[in-house]
Design brief:
- The mean pLDDT is 96.
- The chain has 149 residues and is an alpha+beta fold.
- It is 38% helix and 28% strand.
- Strands 1, 2, 3, 4, 5, 6, 7 and 8 form an eight-stranded mixed β-sheet that branches.
- The chain has a single domain, classed as Aminopeptidase, CATH 3.40.630.30.
- The protein contains five helices and eight strands.
């Protein structure tokens, strides 16, 4: 069983470690060296703390029975998913779906945007997101598909 809750500042280091590990294992394959460097800076604990405190980004986490963080979602500007990762040991356990559902419950919005990695494209489609463009975009070495919900 998993519980979904708002992240606390003390969780940031663990969240950052999870995101880095999963990004490097699955999502970094087509990004350039510059892109990988930019992502790792963006997901550093220091930058996550700044977004958490200064920008007021919403971060939700999924915890397992040992209270370990096994998934996370970060929402910025009340509508843009800037990070969304689940520990690969828990793929296909509906953690991602539960995190997104809780995000929608908190904000009550019916429109969201995300820049999906190639790896996560099918996952977002299953959640109901639609690709805005057919071709992959590249910004600062990071490859992504802009999507809306």
């Amino acid at each position: 069983m998993f519980k979904i809750e708002k992240a606390k500042i003390d969780d940031i280091e663990e969240i950052s470690d999870l995101v880095k590990r999963i990004y490097l294992k699955y999502n970094s394959k087509i990004d350039t060296e510059e892109g990988i460097k930019n992502i790792l800076i963006f997901v550093s604990a220091e930058n996550m703390r700044l977004r958490f405190y200064i920008e007021g980004a919403l971060m939700l986490v999924a915890r397992d029975e040992n209270n370990d963080i096994v998934g996370m979602i970060e929402l910025r500007d009340f509508e843009h998913i800037s990070l969304f990762f689940v520990d690969d040991k828990y793929f296909k356990c509906h953690i991602g779906k539960k995190l997104f559902e809780e995000t929608k419950n908190i904000f009550g919005c019916d429109k969201y945007s995300v820049n999906s990695s190639d790896y996560a494209l099918e996952f977002y489609k299953k959640l109901g997101f639609i690709q805005i463009t057919d071709s992959i975009k590249i910004e600062k070495g990071v490859h992504f598909y802009p999507m809306i919900y």
